[in-house]
Amino acid sequence: MVNVDTPSSYGNPRFHPSKLYPSLSWDREAYVLGIESTAHTFGVGIASTKSPYILVSARSTYRPEKGGIHPREAAEHHVKMAPTVIREALKHAGLSIRDIDAVAVALGPGLGPALRVGATIARGLASYFSKPLVPVNHAVAHIEIARFYTGQRDPLVLYVSGGNTMVAAFAKKRYRVFGETIDIALGNLLDTFAREVGLAPPYIVEGLHVVDRCASEADDPVVLPYTVKGMDVSYSGLLTAAIRAWRRSKDNKDKARICLGLRESAYGTAVEVTERGLAHTRKREVLLTGGVAASPVLQEKLREMAKLHDAIFGVSPLSLAGDNGAMIAWVGLLNYLSNIIIEPIKAVVKQRWRLDSVEVPWR
Amino acid sequence: MEAGQRRSALEVGIEGEPAYVGAEAILYVVDWFGDKAIAKYRPPKPYRHKVIDEDLRTRRTIVEAKALHTARSIGVPAPELYFVDPISKIIVMEYIEGVKLADIIESNPLKAREYAKTLGVYAARMHSNELAHGDLTTSNVLVTSNGQLFIIDFGLSSLKASERDKAIDLHLFIRSLESTHPEHVEVMVEAFLEGYSTILGRSEADKLMGIVREIRLMGRYHEERRRK
Question: Among the options B55, B103, B135, B206, which is catalytic?
Answer without folding.
Answer: B135
